[in-house]
Amino acid sequence: MDFLSEKKKHDNLSKPVILTFATEVSEQIVTNSVSEVTETVIEQVVVWQNRPLDDLYPVVYLDCIVIKVHQEKRVIKKSMYLALGINAEGQKELLGCGCRRRRVSNSGFLY
Q: d(Cα 94, Cα 84) in Å, to the nearest integer?
């Protein structure tokens, strides 16, 4: 019985330490992974942003979705705008996207 009670004490003491360590390690892995992915695709994003667009898109869709994001230890709402065009050949193209703190007007996105 003495051995079991000592093991129980050990388990009760070690769980918070393990949970704290696991949380810190997982946050570090996530942070490192996001940085690595960002570094990998940033050049492709810049090329995409500076690509030439067609003069005419017969059909253009504008859409917005409101998402909740963590920013400065708070959860805030941001509006994610998308502009999708269909070119003269009938191919869909993402013309642009943007994120704003709140949905006031679309005018800032279209410029």
A: 5
